[in-house]
Amino acid sequence: MEGKRCGVGGLCRKFKAHFLMILVQLGYSIVTFITEASFEHGLNPYVYVTYRSIVAGLALLPFAFFLERKTRPKLTLALFFEIFVLSLLGVSSSANLYFASLKYTNPTFVTILYNTLASITFIIAVILRVEVINLRNPRSIAKVLGTVVSLGGVMIVTLYRGPIIRNIWPPLIHIHKNNNIHEEWFKGSLLVIASCVALALWYIMQACSLKRYPAQLSLTTWMCLIGGAQSAVFTVLMEHNKSAWTVGFNIDLWAILYSGVVSTGLLTFVQLWCTEEKGPVFVTMFSPLLTVFVVLLSYFVVGDQLYLGCIVGAILVVIGLYSLSWGKEEEQDAW
Description:
The model has no long low-confidence stretch (mean pLDDT 80). 76% of the residues lie in helices and 1% in strands. The chain has one domain (48-334). It has a two-stranded antiparallel sheet. The longest helix has 28 residues, at 185-212. It is mainly α. The protein is globular, with a radius of gyration of 20 Å. This is WAT1-related protein. InterPro entries: EamA_dom, EmrE-like, WAT1-related. It is found in: Membrane. Residues 17-158, 187-325 form the EamA domain. Keywords: Membrane, Transmembrane, Transmembrane helix.
């Protein structure tokens, strides 16, 4: 009996990171739907990003203050400016663009296009000469082919809708939607891709910044608070209705709290732990699960219309992502 317990315990420890990453993607998929519901209820996307960034920063602040008080470097003016740019790319700009796209598309469409982040990051890294392509090396070929296939999937999702795959039963959860807004697929595509470009630049810049400021929790806290302030300024310029800042005790409040505390706070902790334990390639391998969860929830629970073009494009995007990830993994193993 004792040996059996050890075997089960060892198995749990072995696959702990796998289980946690599955929960992370499920948590992110819930964020997408609760956010869409709050937008349909009337919450302004820019106000939402502002509040959720500030909530996340305040939630992380005590952990960053106490856990990294001995390892946190001194914040110089140059470092503060660097964090300001990181916040602009990775928090305020990317989040505002991403969530604004939900007003013109749906969660399935957004998450499919969001999976091209790895490919866009690779392209920008090549342009900036951070990545080197050697077409005689199978690893480089896999990365190039993966990028091309992913972008091909994006083109299919954006330009081809195809026949509707009808729901087999009524939705379990009903979200009232403005059908006129949700027809602007091309506009939504541009917003998601712009968000991915901002995040790609953020990832590339963050790798350098962490060498000068090796305190991940503190850096995340700074970015959330500064990004929230940047988003607040942007919201004031874009939204002149003061009542938009009012949030009642309803779905809007729950969306902000869940997205800020759970998504930006708790799930960031989990991803940092998994990255430290298994490496960044392991973490990115689970990102296609977000699309799977969102498609399943959209079709079976919320009752969103699912188009053939979305399914074909999603398959190509996921295949391309795994090809790119395989190339990166082999490259890391070689090092």
